[in-house]
Amino acid sequence: HTQQHHQHGLQGNKVQRPGTTRRSTTNSITARRLRNVTIHTLTNKMHQFLLNSLDPRTNAQYNRCLTEYTAFCKHFNIQGFPVTEHNLMLYTNFLAEHSSHKNIKVHLSAIKYHDIRFGHHTQLPPLPRLCLLIPSIKRTQGSKHVKPKRQPVTIETLTLIYKHLLASEYCAYDRQMLWTACTTAFFGFLRSSEYLSPTMQDYDPTVTLLFSDITIMESKALINIKTSKTDPFRHGCVLRLFSTNHSICPVNSLKTLCRIHHKEPGPSTRSQTDPT
């Protein structure tokens, strides 16, 4: 009797299959999300993500290269995109008149990037003649575009810089600011992009070193480095500088600069003589 009653109950009430509720909930969430987006917004977001695929400085450099390439193609009324090997070779020869082979390779990388970004190619076709042209230009140019070898910065060099600043016509604040920038970069092994603004007209607070990124203690200083060439995803790191007990000391320089600073928000290396 119990078995018959159980079977009757099963016939009267359908047993829900496992996972049906979850699938139904997921579908409703997806439908609700789809109502809040359009192809236009997705396209704009896609292009924004593509713009962020490069470091901002690299992106700016590639955009300058694109502007030059576009002007070249427009002047000679030739096709810019999709790229063709012949037109790239013409542009490469044009660049060779005033640029080194290294700079030419940067231009070609920028053109390749934009060609892929614009959706013309997912991968550029083989360009064998262009590959022959680049080393030929390098061999022909020789040492024409070779820059002088950079000299290392030493304590003696810093001493000369300090003497030059003392004899300069900068105001007291600017002299201290420049000296602090030199000592901080020297003892912290900093690249210029890690603490300076890329342009004189404006600065990006998410990249440039600000006074709020500096913590001064008795015998050390903590500096929050927000971005670096070796940190493309901007995880950041804290740089620790310690007192040297020497006339050239990054901690003492930072203490002096922070003491005479007017507590205005902005870059730590902003000049008072020239607001930029």
Automatic annotation (TrEMBL):
<keyword id="KW-0238">DNA-binding</keyword>
<dbReference type="InterPro" id="IPR010998">
    <property type="entry name" value="Integrase_recombinase_N"/>
</dbReference>
<dbReference type="GO" id="GO:0003677">
    <property type="term" value="F:DNA binding"/>
</dbReference>
<protein>
    <recommendedName>
        <fullName>Core-binding (CB) domain-containing protein</fullName>
    </recommendedName>
</protein>
<feature type="region of interest" description="Disordered">
    <location>
        <begin position="1"/>
        <end position="28"/>
    </location>
</feature>
<feature type="compositionally biased region" description="Polar residues">
    <location>
        <begin position="18"/>
        <end position="28"/>
    </location>
</feature>
<dbReference type="InterPro" id="IPR052925">
    <property type="entry name" value="Phage_Integrase-like_Recomb"/>
</dbReference>
